[in-house]
Amino acid sequence: MLAVSLVFGSFLTFLFLVVGIIGGWVAREYLMNYQDAPRLHPEFFDEHGNVVPDEVLALRFEEGFFTDESEEEED
Known about the structure:
- By secondary structure, this protein is an all-alpha fold.
- It has one domain.
- Helices cover about 50% and strands about 0% of the residues.
- The protein is built from 2 helices and no strands.
- It has helices at about 1-35, 70-75.
- The longest helix is centred in the N-terminal third of the chain and has 32 residues, at about 1-35.
- It is elongated, with a radius of gyration of 30 Å.
């Protein structure tokens, strides 16, 4: 009985390994070839439509973050 269990257990382990490898390969191929590439923002392109090789820096200034010290002293 133990020998039968070991044979079936080994067979099932090998079968799950093969199915996992094939399933992983198919999923990788799908993700690499058929998934849409991320779209770049217009800031990353130059006037000819080529990707800019330099770093792009974005700044955002919030209202009231910078206060002028001279305005505070006058009040």
